[in-house]
Amino acid sequence: MTEITILEKIKAIVTPYVQRKEGLENFNDSTDFLTDLKINSANLVDVILDVEDEFNIEIDNTSMDGMLTAGDAKRIILNKMNN
Amino acid sequence: MSNNWNTSRYLNKLYTTAEQKYISEAQDPQLILQLFWSLKEAAYKAHQRRLDLPRSYNPLEFSCEIISEDNSETTGSVFIGNSVYHTISIITKQYIHSVASFDNPSNFISKIFDAEIDIKQELLLAYSKITQQEFQLLSVQKNAEQIPFFYRNKTKLHVDFSLSHHGKFSAFVLALTNS
Questions:
Q1: I need a labelling partner for B128 at 20 to 30 A (CA). Which of A63, A69, A75, B146 fits?
Q2: Is B163 an 8 Å CB contact of chain A?
Q3: Mean predicted confidence (pLDDT) in B145-158
Q4: A56 touching chain B per CB within 8 A
């Protein structure tokens, strides 16, 4: 799976929770879930569960703590998929 | 409420074993689940501000306990690292609003508004009125960690406050001091 595909899948996963739709334009590694997309922090866990399901991986709490941007999520996904 | 709320996958990412036990034994588990989340958020903001920490997403490190419940408010404690925050929560049919503090828990004012209201402006108006400072000179700006501070012109003020937005409501909490 390419990095671009992963980013596109992340974008699809977060979209239902996004409260600031303009943040979805130019979706890239530095897109911040909280400040750019204004995803409610109460929904971050839902995003993480959806990512686990989509990529068939398990995201432990330490990884979860570092998942604040699309790029963070992409790196964690790649890391988990390759192990 | 998330559709996932009753699954162990969801609960295990957000709530400690002790919290999950308390939730499952409660008369209204969903309410306690939402209350604990409200406490974690309030304590997270207070903790981040107090220690000037970068942002993090580590709900399991915040451990909530309920101390007392009566008709008007619920008091509790949240443990994070070596710190303990005292919490006061108002629970209505429409919202749960929690305030976490490290020191004196009752020296603050808190107001809740409909989401359309400009909450920053309401907060600055309240602050300027209480401290008799000119409203025009005041502003709210965030630092690199996304923590907001009051500024009078270019001077950063050392006042503790918090802004929250959730769905149909927004709120502010302003700490009152004797200085």
A1: B146
A2: no
A3: 94
A4: no
H/E element holding B122? helix B119-131
Interface contact A48, partner B, CB < 8 A: yes
Residue type at B37?
Answer: W
Q: Which of residues B60, B77, B105 is at a domain's end?
A: B105
- Residue B45 has a pLDDT of 95
B83 touching chain A per CB within 8 A: no
For residues B4 and B22, membership in a common domain is answered with yes
For residue B126, the number of C-alpha atoms closer than 13 Å in the C-beta half-sphere is: 19
Each residue's pLDDT tens digit, A12-57: 999 999 999 999 999 999 999 999 999 999 999 999 999 999 999 9
By Cβ distance, the residue of B9, B58, B146 closest to A65 is B58
Chain A residues touching B60 at Cβ < 8 A: 61
Ordered structural domains, chain A, with CATH: 3-81 (1.10.1200.10)
d(C-alpha B171, C-alpha B179), whole Å: 24
Average pLDDT over residues B85-102: 93
CATH of the domain at B55: 3.90.470.20
pTM of the predicted structure, to 2 decimals: 0.87
ipTM at complex level: 0.91
Question: Residues 9 to 48 of B: which have CB under 8 A from any A CB?
Answer: 9-10, 13-14, 37, 41
Whether B142 and B84 share a structural domain: no
